[in-house]
Amino acid sequence: MGILKISDQLHDEIRVSSKSMSRSINAQAEFWIRLGRLCELNPELTYNDILQQYLLPAVAPDAEASA
Known about the structure:
By secondary structure, the chain is mainly alpha-helical. The protein is 73% helix and 0% strand. The protein has a domain of 35 residues. Helix 1 crosses helix 2 and helix 2 crosses helix 3.
């Protein structure tokens, strides 16, 4: 685990979003970092495409198996 220094403003935005998404502050920051990385690596995909192909299966691998 490493330490990442971010601005106070970004930390506040993460904190607010983490509450509305029922995630910890760290989990929300990790989600945004993963999402941003995937957006840069896959500029042809939409937000929903990235969620469905990369992020949602990682969060709930059993959901796809039971579908």
